[in-house]
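Give me structure tokens for this 227-residue protein.
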Amino acid sequence: MEHRGNRTALLVYLGHLMAEAGDQLAQLGGHERRAGLHERFLGWARARGGTMFHVNHQPGAEIHHTDPFAVPAGQKSPARRLRGRLAAPVTLWTAPGPAGLTVSSTLVAEGEPDRLLGLVDPESDLWAAVEEAGRFAVTPLGPAHRQLADRFAGLFPSPGGLFATGGWTDTEYGPVPADAGGWTGCRLDTAREYGWALLVEATIEAVTLAEETTPLLHYRGRYHELT
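Here you go.
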């Protein structure tokens, strides 16, 4: 079965190529890029069904796996609007493969042993990699990681692959950003459907913390920093 993340990445990449081709043709012809190409591409993509993500030129506009063209803010369900009003840490989940996904629903529960929980897209490449490897890494992101967060959410083009740019540190749980303030390695315990997402439960096996850094938060559809 085709993963939604694969289709999303392909559509975003094709849209990026279309924009580059339009600019190059316009330069060769000595005229401006033909109007309407972007709208025609979106219409073509949406006509073929499924969820279409937009290429985000303002990092932090939206990091959830939903259709940005579908429901105006005032028409969203009360539960979804409530979720938007709960500030959440922006984290990057990665797994051997490698694969990765931006996640804004991560919770640490102290105990014996310490546990980590999160809601992820069951059709994402990240979940397929976690399910196969049985382990994954979670990295809290900071203000400098806005574009990285958008890239792994499928909102920013990533020619060459999600891990093609930036510095990465390889770990047995998956690659983590080299400039991260810390990360944790987790062993997958169980997962089950929870709402429209997958509730992942894991045991924390390793924690690496550098000096404390400012967190990146997601609130009402945009990124925010602590002030």
